[in-house]
Specification:
243 residues, alpha/beta, Rossmann fold, six-stranded mixed β-sheet, three-stranded antiparallel β-sheet, 9 strands, 33% helix, globular
């Protein structure tokens, strides 16, 4: 596996028998997973399977009701150099450049360094020439790329992505997938969710299938998506509904 770009951030991320309830409803039920450095890990499963909740609890935005989550080999708070991009990112009612400037300020980047960093991030995500455009007027694919640029402003070692290509057209999807590949190739650990099995096959090193808050099966994408071991995985990959 690839060496992490930021070795100071402890990996693997280890989830041990994690339970999360929203009110009286169990959302994650005894989830145990290990996210290693290397190629992206892609979470698949039907709506309501717990994929988004898993990202939120790993990021520290939700507290587990039981179990524990470890970054590295010991318990401690979530490191600063990780980021989460939501499925429907909220754009500040400012220009594209101002959105990035805000993210850089929040990341502690000195003011004098921000203009150059803004331009570098825009080039990185393919938004050159759009610095002065109002962010809320961007297309869906452009907004998603800006959201990724804001996340990259934190110089993350771990990047969580929740359905980054949902509702995007093929061209916008291709642009986001290429960006994910470049980020992962730079040593950033990507953990993402998707409903698109083709996308999972194109991007994933490892695939995790969730259903009703439980881990049904994990394995290399080349194995799980071609010769799944469990009946639930076989049905899901064949396009059948899991209820």
């Amino acid at each position: 596996m690839a060496t992490p770009l930021h070795p100071g951030v402890p990996l693997p991320i280890v989830m041990e028998d994690v339970h999360v309830n929203l009110g009286a409803t169990p959302v994650l039920r005894g989830v145990s997973l290990r996210f290693e450095a290397g190629a992206p890990t892609v979470l698949i499963g039907p709506n309501g399977s717990g994929k988004t909740t898993l990202l939120r609890v790993a990021m520290g935005l939700l507290r587990a009701d039981a179990g524990r989550i470890r970054w590295g080999e010991s318990d401690h708070a979530v490191p600063e150099r990780c980021a989460l991009v939501f499925q429907r990112p909220v754009m500040l009612r400012r220009t594209v450049a101002a959105n990035l400037g805000y993210a850089l300020a929040a990341a502690g980047v000195p003011r004098a360094q921000r203009p150059a960093r803004v331009q570098a991030l825009l080039r990185e995500v393919g938004l050159d020439g759009m610095a002065d455009r109002p962010a809320p007027r961007l297309s869906g694919g452009e907004r998603q790329r800006l959201a990724l640029a804001r996340a990259l402003a934190r110089d993350p070692a771990v990047l969580f992505l929740d359905e980054p290509t949902a509702s995007l057209d093929p061209a916008a999807t291709l642009a986001i997938e290429e960006l994910v590949r470049r980020v992962a190739a730079a040593g950033v650990k990507v953990v993402m969710t998707t409903h698109d099995l083709g996308e999972a096959a194109r991007l994933a090193g490892e695939v995790v299938l969730l259903h009703r808050g439980r881990v049904i099966e994990t394995g290399p994408a080349s194995q799980l998506l071609v010769q799944p071991r469990t009946e639930e995985a076989r049905r899901f990959i064949a396009g059948q509904l899991l209820v």
